[in-house]
Specification:
alpha+beta, Ubiquitin-like (UB roll), six-stranded mixed β-sheet, globular
Length: 494
Amino acid sequence: MPYHMQHCLIGLAGYMRDYLHLFVNGQEHKVSGSEAFQPLSTFLRWGLGKTGTKIVCEEGDCGACTVLVGKLKDGKIDYQPINSCIQLLYQADLSHIITVEGLKQNGHLNPVQDAMVECHGTQCGFCTPGFVVAMCEYFDRSKSPCAQGIKDSVTGNLCRCTGYEPIIKAGLNVDLTSIVPLSELYPPSEMVKLFAEKRKESVLIKAEGKTVFLPATLADASKFKSENQDAIIIAGGTDVCVVMNKRAYAPNVVMNFCNIDGLSEIKIGDGRIHVGATATLAKLESFVKDKVPEFFDLLWVFGSPQIRNAGTLAGNIANASPIADTPPFLFVMDAVINLVSTKGSRQVRINDFYKGYKRFDMNKDEFISSVEIPLPAKGEMVRLYKVSRRKHLDISTNTAAFKFKLNGNKIEDIAIAYGGVAAVILRLPKTEDFLKGKQVDLDVFQKAADIAVSEITPISDVRGSREFRLQLAKNLLSKLYYEITEGRIAACQQ
């Protein structure tokens, strides 16, 4: 199919194109037709021969397929490491992709690659490109590299034979003086200008019975959704792309918001954090670090850096998993979801949003545009728990969120939400009512735990039995009691 502009106006946007426009290692590419629907890793390996990008798990767990994805941000190209196996090519529209091959400096190995060789940081080598790419982004971003920073940067990269010690040692032995910044390796001026212009255009690609639409405005998105009410909306794609890879799920009509200006914003107003639908979890994690430290800690163990650089809060909500990490916090904070359609906008409290497993108070022509999270009030305390078999890169067995306020040694108010204990995230109103006005006493919390068990209906699965989850529900309330009495939870000072 020839690359050309379709001169047809759509909504409030400018012209619409029928191809993707991206760069790979500084080289410009235009992709149309069925190629647009393939995983980014497949395009890089089979389409361009960039076989340094490895495919192993196809689930975003191992990081062997890590590449740097550069997006336009504040007049610059901002790079983030992302798992290319669970990114579809159309998500990379108006991006600059840097693979491990593109990290060479003046025809020589990158200093990170040199250090991996010198410190014997590789054996079979299959995981090595992912480690190199992740560390290169860290050294490009960090002003004062350190051992912990290196470890954090490669949290999403697994090695099964070398062992992590020589890899971390390699990071510590990188010659920082010889690193060429990515902005010098790939001068951004041409890409910045092109991406800014092309963002005004919506993209519509149809091939072999499939359709993908990348709207340039919310108005375009609303119009398309009203005409294609069964369209699947993909934000970060960190869950649905796994299902596509592993279960051959192939939606016929898809809409992605990667090119809509303003949807990635996070800001504070009226005592609330306003999170745009395409704002990544990594961006949210950084934003809440000093504002809601407990939520920051939870986001830190939300998958790998590569997952958080792609996944979104709106996507975590819309995925509707009963073991999702963020909704329990949103439940106790009584967050609000902003929905948009051609009929206008409306708000739904998240406590009213889920009507059953994968069922919402959301019409088929609506989609999430943003989420509003009230900040903890002065004197309120927040405690969030995630129980999983390992700390990082693991799906929850149980989750719990508590927001409460004490008056001396008395519980003045409390909100409790549990995940992994029913088909949806649950508030525990009977347990809340029992605890309100009670003294902070172990016997009180143990009785509350018995009530909590009566409000949940967990099942057995590969992550834990029903009995285990029932015991966890009790233990989490006991844990909360001990952390209160030990003074380990600080009250909000706002």
